[in-house]
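Why this split exists: single-chain examples teach little about how molecules sit against one another. For that reason, every record in the complexes split bundles all components of an assembly together and asks for one structure covering all of them. Below is a record exactly as it appears in the raw files.
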Amino acid sequence: MRHDHAQWGSADQIGAANLLTTEKRLAALQSVRQGRIFDVSHEIYMGAPYMAPNQTPYLMSIFGSWRHTIARRRKMGATNDAGTNLERIEMTTHVGTHIDALGHFSKGDMLYNGNKAADVVTDWGLDRLGIEHAPPMITRGVLFDVAGATGAAHMQPGQTVTVEHLQRAAEAGGFAVEPGDIALIRTGWGRYFGTDNARYVEGEPGIDVPAAKWLIEQGIVAIGADNMAVEVLPNPNRSIMMPVHQFALAECGVYLIENLALEDVAAERIHTACFILLATKLRGATGAPVRPIMMT
Amino acid sequence: MRHDHAQWGSADQIGAANLLTTEKRLAALQSVRQGRIFDVSHEIYMGAPYMAPNQTPYLMSIFGSWRHTIARRRKMGATNDAGTNLERIEMTTHVGTHIDALGHFSKGDMLYNGNKAADVVTDWGLDRLGIEHAPPMITRGVLFDVAGATGAAHMQPGQTVTVEHLQRAAEAGGFAVEPGDIALIRTGWGRYFGTDNARYVEGEPGIDVPAAKWLIEQGIVAIGADNMAVEVLPNPNRSIMMPVHQFALAECGVYLIENLALEDVAAERIHTACFILLATKLRGATGAPVRPIMMT
Amino acid sequence: MRHDHAQWGSADQIGAANLLTTEKRLAALQSVRQGRIFDVSHEIYMGAPYMAPNQTPYLMSIFGSWRHTIARRRKMGATNDAGTNLERIEMTTHVGTHIDALGHFSKGDMLYNGNKAADVVTDWGLDRLGIEHAPPMITRGVLFDVAGATGAAHMQPGQTVTVEHLQRAAEAGGFAVEPGDIALIRTGWGRYFGTDNARYVEGEPGIDVPAAKWLIEQGIVAIGADNMAVEVLPNPNRSIMMPVHQFALAECGVYLIENLALEDVAAERIHTACFILLATKLRGATGAPVRPIMMT
Amino acid sequence: MRHDHAQWGSADQIGAANLLTTEKRLAALQSVRQGRIFDVSHEIYMGAPYMAPNQTPYLMSIFGSWRHTIARRRKMGATNDAGTNLERIEMTTHVGTHIDALGHFSKGDMLYNGNKAADVVTDWGLDRLGIEHAPPMITRGVLFDVAGATGAAHMQPGQTVTVEHLQRAAEAGGFAVEPGDIALIRTGWGRYFGTDNARYVEGEPGIDVPAAKWLIEQGIVAIGADNMAVEVLPNPNRSIMMPVHQFALAECGVYLIENLALEDVAAERIHTACFILLATKLRGATGAPVRPIMMT
């Protein structure tokens, strides 16, 4: 599989989502036997972890409440005391469990598929490559339980998930990657999401570029992990920052899914399952908070 | 089917989502033959319609951009020019295609299932009945193409979708409602979403309480429509405001799904299909913008 | 008086505020005889006028309220029931009565005093020329009651306030501009602020570049008006947009003060008075909402 | 001086600002001899200290920038390349140097002057007692350099500024409080604003209720300090929280001014001076970020 930008045509905005074929989708749906749902997302709340300074805090407060909406409606002549509760949220889309849009990262001044950042990135979001282009993802998810394979409760910040780790985890899981799959990598680090946020974002175990390359060469649509950035942080080479984001998003058109909650599926030893992720179509956004599930 | 609050127990927070049985889910998945996906949501963007004053505008702007993140990372010693694009969003959850949480509406000082609004509604959201409690919805969706059945391109603001309208549309669609279904009502009004927002929110065709009651008595989990409020606006009885919201959410524990995009499925004469909606778990939120799909 | 950027040195960031000498300040203070204060600002509120799309709505809601803060403090052991009320605001600084920072406008890629916009304008505000550099302004304010001099209640949108208008108003007011003064121009248009916002922002009477030049050549520090943009909108030459902003801010380093409330001072026939404006030091901001006063 | 709510009438919304007489104002202005301005406010910026959870972070990013506004205007036919830079801010009003509105704190369900919190505090701010009611404050400021009088660089968190401290500082400063004055208390703690924010908000030296009472009995309009809360934190009596806020705002109608920058005036041994504070009229807000000055 080639990874040059031209493989899906110069107009392409969905990248590896081109591998989400109808056959793949039907096979994933037909693999569901029990109808069990595993929720692989965390709740989003004030205090959810974020990596400053680019990521920013999530804030929510009630904007209209039952008390005052009832009072306002009474003044307008209403007699049925319908009270509305409705909030105002301030957030980045990279909060909680979320998916990155292909336009989230650049390599210098270039985005995925030859798009110039100067043309695409406007004050008000992405004119191309925004998350609204990410199609519904219904395919096979494959869980690389790397932490489980190493026997540790979790890997360590700065510890790289290598190709070998992935190969061993696939073997332990009894699966081989196939085109159109979505890779879910369990480092065990997710246990600190919401329980020790300072620790969670200070660094993390994660993949390096060779591991991303190995996955992508096999036709992976998206790489998810139970950490904030999928990739190892800090990068062992301190003069390189966020290379997996660059490689996956900007070079290969492969999506990243972050802050997954993978403890339950790992505990049940589920290694392949129907994976569904439906990204809200926030036009021009660089990602979307999501609620992916796995089904068996 | 009884609709009193006690039917699913005094601790229940999910209401009619209790009807989403494993059998129902498996049947819906197994009904998918072609693997076709119909996207029944609109994009969310600055300028999306909202009903002031409770609903508020959606704002998005780039918070961190490739130019400045590259510059910052260079100063930190990075040589690979990874540029991040990342936005800040200010919004209500009731923007675009969205689902209402059960705690979104009160009847006086009472929320669904005997919850007192004074206890549940805090400054920072709902302590109970927030959208994080809404489970993944994978079930049969049934399309009541009311506009199609009437022969008009769309119904009129203030025009009520009655029980008779629904019955006729079901008959035309060749289906009967079954417990655990999700009802999707097409009034044709959705054509003004994003094309004439002022008109879209000034009023709308929609159901009345008897129509909601008829659906709910048959075991509907959620009622969706191609308008802002599901229900007819303004209410023909001007002294009653938002009675369907009160009835469905606060009395019956039945969800509402708003601003659906139903033109495509209607054009293809799809009346029953696998419906999937995965609400992002925004803790304590009164709703969530979503990307529901239908599959055949 | 020359207006080239070099007049106050290449490091200068305050522009015409250099004309705010100690002598000027003392004279203004000593001119106060009665101790009367005239409030020349409007209140800022949800619904305040704004010019889309660059200007954006002002939103405010209570974030923490007495009810819930008392409850939280009780849980922490407090017995004195101290309730806090505290809001969250989302806004642009160009809301209500406000002052523009010198970095608010560019002429192509250049800002005031030879600053390159590409260097100064970051994702998070202005690295130079932000409103925090605007010193306290305590000087003589001179009111050009142009509407009063014409005899009309207000001038019309698209109607230019010319040099002749200003000259006639100064004559009627019995004053001559002196270096270090702040000019306040009454078009009468302010009567629609908050009373007919749609009309208020659709267009406005205001000055043209020759009028700005005439004021600036006499040593004006800032030009304020009872409209949204100081300058005539739409510009009679439709291929030129916002030329007074460019000229005053980017070329001359002269501040603009917008949405002033000048009806009261005009009604009292006050033409010169001590003017005080203290811009909140929002670092890197392109302006600040303010509460200027005049004193006699 | 009595402190019961009735002293300025049952309709009063400005409290001790009633003491800001014309005579007081003229005397303050006439005290200015040199025309020197001392800026006693800090800059407001992302990262400014805040006391979670009620206080919330300040966020600012450019919403419209020169590059894209020029591009948009070119499309509309403009040839003069006017570029706008304009931000979006999310904030509480209690950021940086700010003044508290009288409605900021309650004593149980009561606000200042017999106002019931349930009536006054709405979803969208204060219907009464909001900061828009605070008149321009131009009066004598008196600096209690408590840290200077103790000889320490700064007092310690949890250390109370007592009546005796204030008396000694007034004596050292050579002044006696007079009705209509504004008290400025220097604890030295302000040195940590922006230099060690974690330390700055973890606790602070400040006044207790007897010290507030002593000041208020002498006719103080407002009490300011170089810390986040004016009052000592944590309160030595852990079962009492924020009693000075309750007493000053809710009981006495006396304003609080927080996060003042008092090092410069103290270094210059300025103990009495003309103090000017002009709170932006944010309707219904519980405070306002400000830029107070002192003049000699």
